[in-house]
Amino acid sequence: MDTEISNVIKLIFPEGIPESWTVNPDFYAYLSKLGGYTVEQMSKEPERLSEEKAAVLSQTQELSFSNYKTFIRTAECSREIFQQFNRAEGSLDALVGRVPELTARCEEFARASSEIKIARRLNTLTLTRNTQLLQVLEIPQLMETCIREGHYEEALQLAAYVRRLAGKHGDIPIVATIVSEVDSAWWALLHQLIAALRTDLQLPR
């Protein structure tokens, strides 16, 4: 700090100055300006400062009166914006709180969609193989017809086909049911053949 300015500060403010003034460049600029004043200018400075203060106060009041609507509107806008921020913050908190539920529902939807997709594929496959499925379902009835009409060779071929089918798809419930029904017919055929062997057979001449 300049010695001249330091002396002026001690002269005007013998008890010292506030800490905030020491870092204010305008304060030091004003002190430098005072250092260049004459005695007459220095004696008039308090009056000039009072007049300047009064002028500034008057301008401030005039500005307030002429723009009070703007100030009020600005205050209302600030309050409205603050309230909107509060509402937005509350909505955001609520949204964040529901994220776990939303995640769980999305996962549930994904699982349901996957199950529906699998079921649709099975339905499509069932429709494309409808004729074959009907033929397989009719095997027990067809075998009973063959046995009843004495077409034993065809009945044996059907039984052999069902056994091969059981070896590949025996874990499917409907296939297991067909195998069970064909086995029952097979045993009936076997008993019928044994009974026929016990009777007198006519040899061809």
TrEMBL record:
It is found in: Golgi apparatus membrane. It holds the Pfam family Dor1. It is a peripheral membrane protein. Keywords: Golgi apparatus, Membrane, Protein transport, Transport. It comes from the Eukaryota. GO terms for biological process: intra-Golgi vesicle-mediated transport; protein transport. Belongs to the COG8 family. This is Conserved oligomeric Golgi complex subunit 8. It comes from Homalodisca liturata.
